[in-house]
Amino acid sequence: MDHVLDHVGIAVRSIDDVLPFYLNVLNGLLEDRYTSDAPGVEVHVAVVRTNDKVIELLEPTNKNSPIARFIKQRGKGVHHIAYRVEDLDKAILEAKEKGIRFLEDTLRTNTRGRRLIYINPASTAGTLVELCGYPND
């Protein structure tokens, strides 16, 4: 199964503070901006496209959100790399057959309809990797 780079998630303290860099310096286009208040997510998201690449700026909505904890532990910066797959359930099964472990509680459909799950960083040498699929494609 093909895994195509979908986006890079970047943890920031304030989207409004960093957005001008992505729009004015990198000539990005703000495609979407939304908030997810789902427990265990709790994040403001700005989706910026530069040519054919997508960056998601992730700002915590409260001090206990996963992004807030990430910033406290590791600082601002790259939070995760996401790969798009055609069939998320099949990709999960194939990865598990190869010994890959997932953060099972992260399996969900986000507010924009993207199904996703994160791979346990223990299986990726420390990098948080998201697998995602777009059921409406």
TrEMBL record:
Keyword Nuclease listed: no
InterPro entries, sorted: Glyas_Bleomycin-R_OHBP_Dase, MeMalonyl-CoA_epimerase, MMCE/EMCE_epimerase, VOC_core
Pfam families: Glyoxalase_4
Stretches assigned to the VOC domain: 4-134
Record-annotated membrane-spanning stretches: none
Any one GO biological process: L-methylmalonyl-CoA metabolic process
GO molecular function terms attached to this record: dioxygenase activity; metal ion binding; methylmalonyl-CoA epimerase activity
Gene3D superfamilies per record: 2,3-Dihydroxybiphenyl 1,2-Dioxygenase, domain 1 (3.10.180.10)
UniProt entry keywords in alphabetical sequence: Dioxygenase, Metal-binding, Oxidoreductase
SUPFAM superfamilies in UniProt: Glyoxalase/Bleomycin resistance protein/Dihydroxybiphenyl dioxygenase
Similarity field: Belongs to the methylmalonyl-CoA epimerase family.
Protein name (record): Glyoxalase/Bleomycin resistance protein/Dioxygenase superfamily protein
High-level lineage: Bacteria, Bacillati, Bacillota, Bacilli, Bacillales
